[in-house]
Amino acid sequence: MELFYSIQGEGKHTGKAAFFIRLAGCDVGCHWCDVKESWNKSKHPLKHIKELVQEVKKSGAPIVIITGGEPTMYPLEKLTQALKKEGLLVHLETSGAYTITGTFDWICVSPKKRKLPLKESLQKADELKVVIYNKDDFNWAENNALDVKENCALFLQPEWSKANSVMHWITGYIKEKPKWVVSLQTHKYLNIP
């Protein structure tokens, strides 16, 4: 769908320079999704892997983040191999609803209720990032945290349109359960892509 060089705005790697490869196509369909234009893959032209790698190299970015839409709808082995061959750190952002293929240095799973994450995807997560939209989302977060590996970073992130109203819930929850950390959509505060 789009390629851009920016700053990672969320999770464990917040603030780091990163090149984003946003793949089109998503059948998860979150009502609060901020990239709904990514859902229909037919509206976006195909690009060859060589072209993608060249764009990343041209940017000078040390990290590449493959995101979506839902990137794991596709086989990612060839793309990740080509990026790794260039010495890049390759990260993934996924809902975990599909089998994760490819070679990654960091996997962020942000599970969604509309299409449940696979247990095998949760077990591969280096980072679990749960979007908080209502109070039920805390139980959702805890249930998903049961299936991640022991050293997985745990983040609670306010849904952007409700950040002001849910942030006090999140901070209170984290004070009670300090295994969780706040993730903010820093890129939105900075007004960058």
Brief rundown of the structure:
With 193 residues, the chain is α/β, with parallel strands linked by helices.
Blueprint of the fold:
Elements: E1 2-7, E2 17-23, H1 49-59, E3 63-68, H2 77-85, E4 89-94, E5 106-109, H3 119-124, E6 127-132, H4 136-145, E7 153-158, H5 163-176, E8 180-182, H6 186-189
Parallel strand pairs: 2-3, 3-4, 4-5, 5-6, 6-7, 7-8
Antiparallel strand pairs: 1-2
How would you describe what is shown here?
This protein is α/β, with parallel strands linked by helices and 193 residues long. Helix content is 28%, strand content 23%. It has 6 helices and 8 strands; from the N terminus they run ββαβαββαβαβαβα. Helix 4 links the parallel strand 6 and strand 7. Helix 1 (49-59) packs parallel to helix 2 (77-85). The chain is globular. The two termini are 14 Å apart.
Give the spatial strand order of the biggest sheet.
1-2-3-4-5-6-7-8
Distance between the termini: 14 Å
Number of helices: 6
Tell me roughly what share of residues is in helical segments: 25-40%
CATH homologous superfamily classification: Aldolase class I
Low-confidence stretches: none
**SSE series:** EEHEHEEHEHEHEH
CATH topology call:
TIM Barrel
Strand fraction band? Answer: 15-25%
CATH class: Alpha Beta
Major beta-sheet overview: 8 strands, mixed
- Average pLDDT score: 94
- Number of strand segments: 8
